[in-house]
């Protein structure tokens, strides 16, 4: 018989996040790992983000400073799917061949591009089917990447079930490139694909952005009716020049969002000291407490969080897993407040 759950004791490594005593039936929040990193363009390792987070989660203390008994939130992390992992490995090998051709200005083999794009579509279908089935059972879902391309299928399922909603994206990058490196479903293209293919996403609010290409910058300005940018530069300048406090900026950010909010949390939105092994780190991001303060304001505003993803957590050190697990706990608890 399993030992009774003790929120004051050591965690039992039962395969569930933080060792919580729930399963897929009894939990209301399902964390779905997507061990996928086919199109990464810089550092590898985020496919093992979910296992790094799970391992780190066992050493978390359970009291949340805002929601004391947060550990009562019925959270279950699904097992890591071996065939998704295998498809990721296969696709990554193909993508590397194509990226090498590009970087060395060699002839392009279009069959490589086709195979990567087909496999990415397979992944999107898998995520769509998994999340659709869970939503039909009345579960709330947090997707755990993997690279940032993974939530596409989930957002399609959510749009069908929830109708219109807005996305709060915390990220160092816009992720608005059109088929980066020829890969339609690149991690750098996720929100271009979402805005072009999912009309129920009425608003995208991007926070912490500090790396961009010209096309992305132009796209945001051309779609200002649907996309709102709170770049890192703006956030810091407002505070340095004492125009607004950080809290006031958070309120502005929340004001841009509709009643239903999905959170897409790319860990590289945080300062890179908090995510040193993420896929594409960029200097100067949000501090941990700045991110948490912003997330709390969503609840304080009365808006409903309908789902989230956490992506791009690295696996080369336990520190990445430690910070990732803490952010995942916050996100899951906030989703639990909206049941
Ligand atoms: Mn991203």
Automatic annotation (TrEMBL):
InterPro entries according to UniProt: Ureohydrolase (IPR006035), Ureohydrolase_dom_sf (IPR023696)
GO terms under biological process: putrescine biosynthetic process from arginine, via agmatine
GO terms assigned for molecular function: agmatinase activity; metal ion binding
UniProt-listed SUPFAM superfamilies: Arginase/deacetylase
Segment forming the signal sequence: none
Obligatory cofactor(s): Mn(2+)
Residues where Mn(2+) binds: 148, 171, 173, 175, 266, 268
PROSITE patterns: ARGINASE_2 (PS51409)
Keywords, alphabetical: Hydrolase, Manganese, Metal-binding
Record-linked Pfam families: Arginase
Cofactor comment: Binds 2 manganese ions per subunit.
Top EC group: hydrolase
EC number(s) given by UniProt: 3.5.3.11
Protein family: Belongs to the arginase family.
Protein name in UniProt: Agmatinase (EC)
Originating species: uncultured Aureispira sp
């Amino acid at each position: 018989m399993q030992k009774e759950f003790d929120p004051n004791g050591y965690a039992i490594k039962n395969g569930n996040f933080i060792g919580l005593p729930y399963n897929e039936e009894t939990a209301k929040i399902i964390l779905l790992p997507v061990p996928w990193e086919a199109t990464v363009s810089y550092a590898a390792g985020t496919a093992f983000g979910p296992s790094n987070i799970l391992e780190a989660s066992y050493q978390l203390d359970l009291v949340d400073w805002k929601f004391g008994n947060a550990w009562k939130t019925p959270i279950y992390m699904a097992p890591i799917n071996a065939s998704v992992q295998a498809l990721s490995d296969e696709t990554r090998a193909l993508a590397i061949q194509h990226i090498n051709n590009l970087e060395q200005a060699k002839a392009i083999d279009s069959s490589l591009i086709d195979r990567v794009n087909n496999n990415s579509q397979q992944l999107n279908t898998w995520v769509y089917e998994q999340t659709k089935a869970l939503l039909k059972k009345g579960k709330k879902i947090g997707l755990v990447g993997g690279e940032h391309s993974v939530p596409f299928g989930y957002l399609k399922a959510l749009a069908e079930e929830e109708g219109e909603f807005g996305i709060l994206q915390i990220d160092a990058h816009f992720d608005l490139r059109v088929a980066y490196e020829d890969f339609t479903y690149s991690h750098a293209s996720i929100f271009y694909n979402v805005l072009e293919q999912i009309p129920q996403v009425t608003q995208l609010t991007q926070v912490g952005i500090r790396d961009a290409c010209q096309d992305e910058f132009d796209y945001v300005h051309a779609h200002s009716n649907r996309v709102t940018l709170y770049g890192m530069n703006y956030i810091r300048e407002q505070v340095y020049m004492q125009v607004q406090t950080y809290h006031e900026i958070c309120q502005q950010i929340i004001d841009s969002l509709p009643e239903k909010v999905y959170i897409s949390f790319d860990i590289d939105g945080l300062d890179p000291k908090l995510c040193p092994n993420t896929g594409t780190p960029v200097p100067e991001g949000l501090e941990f407490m700045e991110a948490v303060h912003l997330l709390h304001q969503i609840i304080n505003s009365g808006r409903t969080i309908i789902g989230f993803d956490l992506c791009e957590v690295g696996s080369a050190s336990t520190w990445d897993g430690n910070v990732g697990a803490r952010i995942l706990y916050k996100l899951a608890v906030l989703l639990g407040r909206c049941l």
